[in-house]
């Protein structure tokens, strides 16, 4: 038995705002941050579970406080008891303490904190099994996988029986797709050239570098002044040419009618999708925008806070691309429910990658989706953001615009001890020099 | 000028779980709590603004942490500068710091904290004007009131111009409705007999007392074992007779199909509405339930986290009664947007009252709604919960099942200093004796 003795939460922040990395119309100057959770165990081999939730700076201390408030629900429990019924564990952590549930429910700070803790449990489990998380999942039977999930509030759209049937459909051919991924990798796209705070010169330089590196799918931030958005779209199209894919991301800046009007002015640059055109809560608004803007696709999800919201986005035919966030949803269990819902409704999942540690998580999610859930790469692209990977013990590996299959055991976000020490807020050396 | 010098946040908790007051199927043992905010000013008269957000115990410390993280956005500002453009102030506090906005956006802990602070500003403003909040609002011109609001993400459903037109429609007859309220009060209903944790004997006793006090509208908690729910409904109907109104409240316990099946088994007791039949995020689910259960009404809102969600509940024809929460929505500014949306869509507003301080807030909201927004009492009932009022300096006054018009300046939630001291967690005397 591996007992989780102590839940440690660290406030880790990177001063990315100094270079305007990650800048967009809504988020002018983010400091990419993590509420970083370590599950310390009593195991002789010193194994520990690592998870994080992503924030953009101030307020990270509130998520740390939330992990501390939840810690007693996990401390003292055996990993083996948890993994024997992961679905029950998930329900218990997210809803078992009704006093804490009140603060969401299943949204905002308390759900972010749950995500970091739940993902740390998956990391611990996968490390104990000696497998990367995608493989831990891919090796499960459909029945075992579905037992990890909670279908509460989505059973009108997807039952456990339907989920098992979806997984069985892909099961006989899983090994073929693993082999394909090992040979070709999983296709990605880059956001690194398109941040709003970058100069024309920097954009052009980054585009050329990205093309040289093999990227063929690019994303631009919009939602500032529309003439500037047009001007930046023109620059990007000039650089990447007509064949490459250009996505646009408004980061929630527009009301419904504004989104339609502005995208009509950007349509000449042939955008593949418009991401977060309006409030992430506006399911019916996204449906309206999608209907009026077709064939431009609508993408959203990085701020979609739980499976109930995604269920409705699918039911309302409100989106073309599902951009779930690995640490805003309530950890991997809820991510898997959304993957299954997306497969049922035929919507490709293109997870959110703009943050520290998110690419490290999402490679497992997208590869598992291909191997065992959707069985398809059609319309799928995995976001890649070229920041901060050097802080992870086993960072993502990119080759010619594709993610390589990760082999390190765990869920991928274990940071180097020196990086944690240097970026602990406010006393780490990175903040002392500021 | 009145300068807000310091924002103080206190962790105030009442040990209500000891008596199972407030118990329901989802929330078995709540300790009614408040993140209590005091805006200390430099004014010679010592005026201060008081606001709170409601939680049910554990996790209140996280909301306190969130207020502390937001405090610097308010400290040093002049009340007069804020009230000169309340709409801009609201946008700034809820979204002006994009790093903090990331934690919601506009939901969960960070929005609860905003609510406490924003309501404290309204309290300070009303005290400065020497008026109760309902009157401060009722005395404004339509244009001045609408300038207090932020229509971001709802302009597709309601424009500022439409809001002004709605208010103008009622303006000429405001004084008549004020006079009516002073004479008759605002109709209420009681939840006090129906908590899930109460014995049959206690329920019968409380019903009889409530009938004697003049109550004619009652609410029962359901969502436990269906046979027990039926048994308790039978007891309540026996006590209150066929003429009184009986509402039912499931506190989010059911999936969509379960809600329909269970309410069909409770229909014989003639429920007026089913409240929170499923996840508060499930707009389309509520629409489905409403369609299948008519003529039983559907009510929800105490966990509806912002105006964007209410907008969609109205657009999707998902509810018959809007139960907005004065401290889960982002304070009074956002409450007013929802009142106007509800008026446009013809949905009666029956605010959530089950908590400490909520009745003190909502009397202002419902009376202002009647005076200046909807102009109607049809279908409106204001929840009353018979707990903890003794801790407020100017508690609600009830007469024969009706709320009396409050006259004390402010927004109503200023607590007695002794009550604050005794219930400060964990060092207050109420917690020492536990």
UniProtKB/TrEMBL annotation, chains A, B:
SMART domains (alphabetical): MR_MLE
Keyword ATP-binding (UniProt): no
Enzyme Commission code: 4.2.1.68
Catalytic activity annotation: L-fuconate = 2-dehydro-3-deoxy-L-fuconate + H2O
UniProt entry keywords in alphabetical sequence: Lyase, Magnesium, Metal-binding
Cofactor(s) the record lists: Mg(2+)
Pfam families: MR_MLE_C (PF13378), MR_MLE_N (PF02746)
Ranges of residues in domain Mandelate racemase/muconate lactonizing enzyme C-terminal: 200-296
Name of the protein this chain belongs to: L-fuconate dehydratase
Originating species: Salinicola endophyticus
């Amino acid at each position: 038995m591996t007992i989780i003795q102590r839940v440690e939460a660290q406030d880790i922040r990177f001063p990315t705002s100094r270079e305007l990395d990650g800048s967009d119309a809504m988020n002018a100057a983010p400091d990419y941050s993590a509420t970083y959770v370590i599950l310390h165990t009593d195991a002789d081999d010193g194994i520990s579970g690592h998870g994080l939730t992503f924030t953009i700076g101030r307020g990270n201390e509130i998520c740390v406080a939330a992990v501390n408030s939840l810690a007693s629900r996990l401390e003292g429990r055996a990993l083996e008891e948890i993994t024997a019924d992961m679905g029950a564990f998930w329900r218990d952590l997210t809803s078992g303490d009704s006093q804490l549930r009140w603060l969401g429910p299943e949204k905002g700070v308390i759900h972010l904190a749950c995500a970091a803790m739940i993902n740390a449990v998956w990391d611990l489990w996968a490390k104990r099994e000696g497998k990367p998380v995608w493989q831990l999942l891919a090796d499960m039977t459909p029945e075992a996988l579905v037992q990890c999930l909670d279908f509460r509030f989505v059973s009108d759209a997807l039952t456990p029986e339907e989920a098992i049937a979806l997984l069985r459909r892909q099961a006989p051919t899983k090994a073929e797709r693993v082999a394909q991924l090992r040979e070709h990798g999983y296709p990605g796209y880059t956001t690194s050239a398109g941040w709003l705070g970058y100069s024309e010169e920097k954009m052009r330089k980054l585009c050329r570098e990205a093309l040289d590196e093999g990227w063929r799918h690019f994303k631009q931030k919009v939602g500032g002044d529309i003439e500037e958005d047009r001007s930046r779209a023109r620059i990007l199209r000039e650089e990447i040419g007509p064949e490459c894919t250009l996505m646009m991301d408004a980061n929630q800046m527009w009301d419904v009618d504004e989104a339609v009007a502005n995208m009509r002015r950007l349509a000449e640059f042939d955008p593949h999708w418009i991401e977060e055109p309006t409030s992430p809560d506006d399911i019916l608004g996204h449906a309206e925008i999608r209907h009026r803007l077709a064939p431009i696709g609508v993408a959203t999800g990085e701020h979609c806070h739980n499976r109930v919201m995604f269920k409705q986005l699918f039911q309302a035919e409100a989106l073309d691309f599902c951009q779930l966030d690995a640490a805003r949803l309530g950890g991997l269990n809820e991510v898997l429910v959304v993957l299954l819902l997306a497969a049922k409704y035929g919507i490709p999942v293109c997870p959110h990658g703009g943050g520290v540690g998110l690419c490290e998580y999402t490679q497992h999610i997208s590869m598992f989706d291909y191997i065992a859930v959707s069985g398809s790469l059609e319309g799928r692209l995995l976001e890649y953001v070229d920041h901060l990977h050097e802080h992870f013990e086993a960072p993502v590996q990119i080759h010619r615009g594709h993610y390589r299959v990760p082999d390190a055991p765990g869920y991928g976000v274990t940071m180097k001890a020196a990086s944690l020490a240097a970026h602990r807020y406010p006393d780490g050396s990175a903040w002392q020099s500021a």
